[in-house]
Amino acid sequence: MAREGARPAYDPAGPDDALRSALQELRTGRWLAMRTLLEDTAGWAAWTRRTQVLATAAAGTDVVRAWLAEEPHSVPAVVMRARVGVERALRARREGHRRTHELWIEAWDMSQEAARSAPPDPVPWVCLLALAQLDRRRLWDEHRVAAPEPTLPPGPWGLLAEADKRDPGNREAHHRMLQFLYAHAASPRPAEAEGFAQLVGQTAPPGSALHLLPLYVRVERYRREGGRDTALDLFWVAEDATREALRAYEAWFERSDPAERSPLDLNHLAHALWGAQRFPQAARVFDAIGPYYTPVPWTGRAGRPGEPAEAVEVFLRARARSGATP
Q1: What is the pLDDT of residues 266-300, one digit of tens each?
Q2: For residue 141, is it within any domain?
Q3: This model's pTM is above 0.90
Q4: What is the pLDDT at residue 1?
Q5: Phi/psi at 143 (nearest 5 deg)?
Q6: Residue 225: what pLDDT?
Q7: Total structural domains in the chain?
Q8: What is the enclosing helix (H) or strand (E) of 102?
Q9: Phi (first) and psi of residue 50, to 5 degrees
């Protein structure tokens, strides 16, 4: 039952044992397991997810550079170099590093090379989308393309279209687009981001993880508006919040392949259903989560946001409350 289970801990690999093994090797400076993992990866969804997680771990190392030195014509290595370059540029911006612009341009060049080396691959276009948020004044032409819907602002829609052409409904590509809209928002509650999430969620096919985009927007809105006071807690049970949670449950959770579900998506759905007091549905999602907790979105409901231990306590309370319902 959802009320039972060991105390959770965050694991970036989630239930992907092969990815976990490759990460362990990567952290010791070895790249052969990463190469083997990527060679064995089937499907763009798994490829996108695994390259992202690997890049997060590799960004502080020279592992990918060593791989390329040994195998300079390896296409997966070229794609991973772009992934690592993007991760470093985004980290530099978050930390206010003086080399941010230099790392951004380097990552853009790497992503362009990856796109040329791997024409069918959506990941180089996801990389370019991720970098678009660094262009805060939208100076680049490719970041000022007219939107496909008149209610949405200009942005890197061409980059999204390229990723979508290679992998329709690519989860990370749409989340990167959402990050771009947040980065260029003129208000604490950007209508553009909400409109984009609603539009994508309403048009996504059954089983698509894009049905959860409105849940991510609601968590971000809660964070931006202060969170954790009684008045704001009420909006989790509002009609639109409940509707979004149930739509995601019915259109994604009940129709998706359990092996392809992201732990981050599962945690957002459990959080939304618990907040909407839809406890029987939340219990099923908690059972699917198992031990694969993710700090977000639970940190936003903790007494001290960003405190990992408190976020785990919120998760445990939500799981117990949901599992206690007959």
Answers
A1: 999 999 999 999 999 999 999 999 999 999 999 98
A2: no
A3: yes
A4: 47
A5: -100, 5
A6: 79
A7: 1
A8: helix 100-117
A9: -70, -40
Show the domain range for 241.
202-326
Residue 132, domain member (yes or no) = no
**C-alpha angle 146/151/152, rounded to 5°?**
45
In whole angstroms, how far apart are CA 182 and each of 178, 225, 255, 302? 6, 14, 29, 23
| Sole residue written with tokens 């909400």 | 194
pLDDT reported for residue 305: 67
Give the list of residues 6+ apart from residue 197 with CB closer than 8 angstroms, or none: 178, 213, 214, 216, 217
Mean pLDDT of the chain: 93
145 φ, ψ (degrees, to nearest 5): -75, 140
pLDDT-flagged residues of the chain (< 70): 1-6, 186-189, 227-233, 305-306, 326
**Cis geometry, peptide bond prior to residue 12 (ω within 30 degrees of 0):** no
- Residue 11 CB partners (closer than 8 Å, separation 6+): 20, 291, 292
Helical pair 263-275 and 279-289, crossing angle rounded to 10 deg: 160
Burial of 17-30, coded b for 16+ CB within 10 Å and e otherwise, reads eebeebbebbeeee
Query: Which tokens sit at 227?
Result: 């969170």
CB atoms within 10 A of CB 312: 19
